[in-house]
Amino acid sequence: MRFTSPFGAATIALVGLLSVGTFANAAESLPHDPTTSVFDFELAPGGPTTLEELSNGLFTFSPRFAVFRPRGTLPYEEDSRGWFTSTLFLKSNGKTSRRLTLAYEGGKEQASGVEIAKMAQDGTTVEDFAKIKVRYDKDDNLATGYWITTPRGMALLSVTRHQNRTNDLSINLLDSGVSQVLQDVQLWDGKSDLLTLAPRESGTP
Fold this sequence. Notes:
Keywords: Signal. By secondary structure, the protein is mainly beta.
C-alpha cells in the first residue's frame, strides 16, 4: 500500500529520523500546501487492529499523549534551532536507544509534528519509527486530532469534547478498518512534557 499524506510532509519527513541536517533541508524545501506534498513509502500489508499494535511501544494516548522513554536511558538534547528540537535517549554504553524530534511551524510555540525513532543495537540504524502530526483548536490551542504513520500502518485520531469537560479520542486504524474509542483522555497543549517511563517488559524485575 502507498500513502500520500493529507497533512503534508514539511514536518514529518522520514529523513528527519535519520539525521538532523537532512531533516532541516527537507523541511525547508517541501511545500506547505498539504494537497501538493507527497510522503510516499511502502506500508506493511494488513495493518494493526489496536492502537497498542500500531504504537509498538513507542507512544501512548491513555490517559494522555506521551512518548515512552526506554528504561535505563538518559535524555540528551542533541539540537535545538527554534523550529525543531531533537532529543536522544542514551543507554549506559553511550549508544542511542531512541530519538525524539519535535517540529514547529511559523514560529509557533506548539509542536506541529512529533517523530520517534527507535534505534537498533548499533545506536545509529533506525529499526522502527512513528510520525505524528498534531491539529489544534484555534480557540484554546488544545489538540483536536492526530495523524499517525508507522511501518505497521496509519491512524486518524479525533477528539470529542463533552459538556462535563471529559474528552474521548476516536481512533480509526486505516489499514485494518478497525475503530476504537479511548474515554476520558487528557488533551495535549503542544508544549507540555511528552515523556513517560516505558512499562517494564514481561519477566523483568
